[in-house]
Amino acid sequence: MSKRLTVPKTYKLAIGGAFPRSESGRTYEVLSAKGAFLANAAKASRKDGRDAVVAARAAVKGWSGATAYNRGQVLYRVAEILEGRRAQFIEEIVDQEGVSAAVAGAQVDAAVDLWVWYAGWCDKYAQVAGNANPVSGPYFNISVPEPTGVVATIAPQDSALLGLVSVIAPALVTGNTVVVIASEQHPLSAISFAEVLATSDVPGGVVNVLTGSPAEIAPWLASHADVNALDLAGARDLDWVELEIAAADTLKRVLRPGGIEPSLDRITAFTETKTVWHTKSLV
């Protein structure tokens, strides 16, 4: 009996709910921590970045218009599917980062727990971030947080999975859509996670994953007029000040490199406050 050939996985981009190759046709080799070949990953171009922004913009209305309770259900479903594919992600993290299975398992568990934590905030953050304001006169004055829109983010570069979900999840809580540049060195789990999203209830275009060089792609996203906010969590090794300057030309909200621990601050970082006045009944 002849030996069966393996079927290597093809890692592509994730844009608009589909998995296209880079329009440029470029790929790059992803190596293990010991330098062994693992896979070819798509090397996203400027055009791929533009396509991802178009997809994210088209998805804003539907995702932000969903009820907070529904968004929470959808995000919890992502955690369920991620938990079900735990073994696959452990294997990928071991191969990419060169850590033990126990360490990789802890990273996957932390990613699942983080996703559940943020899912729980979907129908609660508005009560904490919003408020009824005291005013002089026969009026109600209420401040309500609303999503910013399209958020472009650079995922932490030293993590295959946990860093990625740490920047995606909080942006989704409030109804934003995301274009994320995955870790250049450890991109495989990012595309596998995009497959998790595609098989959950997350609408196409809500999360778009680009692999390749952050130094090449980030400047175009920072200056893109249809991107509303920029998360520089994984931009420590880039000239992130220049990215911030580019973002300022289109008045983007910018979150500078810093901690990615789960927090309400990461949820509200990409919200705008809408204040509504309403007369009190004189009857």
Percent helix? 40-55%
CATH class division: Alpha Beta
Mind telling me which CATH architecture this is? Answer: 3-Layer(aba) Sandwich
The figure for the number of domains is 1
Description:
The protein has helices at residues 46-65, 68-84, 86-97, 101-121, 125-129, 162-173, 188-198, 214-223, 240-248, 264-268, and strands at 27-31, 37-42, 131-132, 139-147, 150-154, 177-181, 207-210, 229-231, 253-255, 271-279. The chain has 283 residues and is α/β, with parallel strands linked by helices. The protein has one domain: Aldehyde Dehydrogenase, Chain A, domain 1. The strands form three sheets. Strands 7-6-5-8-9 form a five-stranded parallel beta sheet, with helices on both faces. The chain has a three-stranded antiparallel beta sheet with strand order 3-4-10. A two-stranded antiparallel ribbon has the order 1-2. Helix 2 packs antiparallel against helix 4 (101-121). The mean pLDDT is 94.
Annotation keywords:
single chain, 283 residues, alpha/beta, Aldehyde Dehydrogenase, Chain A, domain 1, five-stranded parallel β-sheet, three-stranded antiparallel β-sheet, 10 helices, 10 strands, 43% helix, Aldehyde_DH_dom, Aldehyde dehydrogenase
Write a compact overview of the structure shown.
With 283 residues, the protein is an alpha/beta fold. Helices cover 43% and strands 18% of the residues.
